[in-house]
Amino acid sequence: MRSSHLSETTSGSVLPPNPYSALCPTRMVLDRIADKWAVLILGLLDGGPQRFNQLRREIGGLSQKMASHTLKSLERDGLVTRTAIATVPVTVEYAITPLGRTLAQAVDSLRLWAENNFDAVLTAQQSYDQRSNELGA
Amino acid sequence: MRSSHLSETTSGSVLPPNPYSALCPTRMVLDRIADKWAVLILGLLDGGPQRFNQLRREIGGLSQKMASHTLKSLERDGLVTRTAIATVPVTVEYAITPLGRTLAQAVDSLRLWAENNFDAVLTAQQSYDQRSNELGA
DNA sequence: TTTGATAGTTTCCAATGGATACCAGATGCG
DNA sequence: CGCATCTGGTATCCATTGGAAACTATCAAA
């Protein structure tokens, strides 16, 4: 398919956005969202605001370091907001932004694909491994 | 909105697919496709079969090692096929499978999002960095 | 004969990510 | 009182990952 996606950029430059070029901004954005933790956090916040540890408890295997790091990046990218609330132990609430919501929807199609097709992938892996064993035995 | 996606799995197990659980197969698939090289290769092959070096030339920054590794993984997952052709220097053609094509379409929405929204992300980053500098100066 | 193309593998090093410990402030519990 | 626990992180160490470059092999063209 790969139609050409010519369009004007912010500054009126004539270069088309092209993630296949290492220096294109769309590529930087792609690198950013091709990240499992970002995908999972965004999907979770799309269902409503969450606090830091609450979020960590919901996402299996998410370390504090990566939670902190990923949330900071998402905030920098304008995809989530961080709000510190002066409760007794200070709680911090993370919420998705309108921009983040549009991404969450695009990303949701990936989650749905995984849910619908993981069995086909697992089957393919098994027959691949079996063929490898028969050849390389 | 995170509706519950209850459905029967291959073996008739009652556990719903849930990428938020570290051990769920959908999570393994998600880890797999949350990979910039896989995304870019799949998108490229969706436009037609490509040879190894041809593909490497089209994707800026893709090293031989990662090209080889990613293509091998994609083949194992049943998303692309590898065909060696006995030409004078042996050429190898990679093509997308029907299963891979369904994923490429889901993934394409990510590429489109990046193309449509990278300017908003860049703007957000700039104002974030500016705020940080003002506070932490 | 040296150079180039084909498609990789191997090796080395820098960067990323996970596990763990630690920090501060306040509350509960014995 | 004194220790554990909750909050949201930061700091550190180490294993794995990813990138750069060199190396493999075969054959063709210059």
What are the SSEs and their pairings?
The structure is a homodimer of 137-residue chains.
Chain A: H1 25-33, H2 36-45, E1 50-51, H3 52-58, H4 64-76, E2 80-85, E3 91-96, H5 98-135
Antiparallel strand pairs in A: 1-3, 2-3
Chain A binds a DNA duplex (30 and 30 nucleotides) through residues 51-53, 61, 63-69, 84, 87-92.
Please state the average pLDDT score of chain A: 84
pLDDT below 50 for ≥5 consecutive residues: which ranges of chain A? 1-12
Order of helices and strands of chain A: HHEHHEEH
Decide which structural class fits the backbone of chain A.
mainly alpha
Helix content of chain A: 55-70%
Please characterize this protein's 3D structure.
Chain A is mostly helical. Helix content of chain A is 56%, strand content 10%. Chain A has 5 helices and 3 strands, in the order ααβααββα. Chain A has a 3-stranded antiparallel beta sheet with strand order 1-3-2. The longest helix of chain A is centred in the C-terminal third of the chain and has 38 residues. Chain A is globular, with a radius of gyration of 20 Å. Chains A and B meet through helix 1, helix 2 and helix 5 of A and helix 1, helix 2 and helix 5 of B. Chain A binds a DNA duplex (30 and 30 nucleotides) through helix 4.
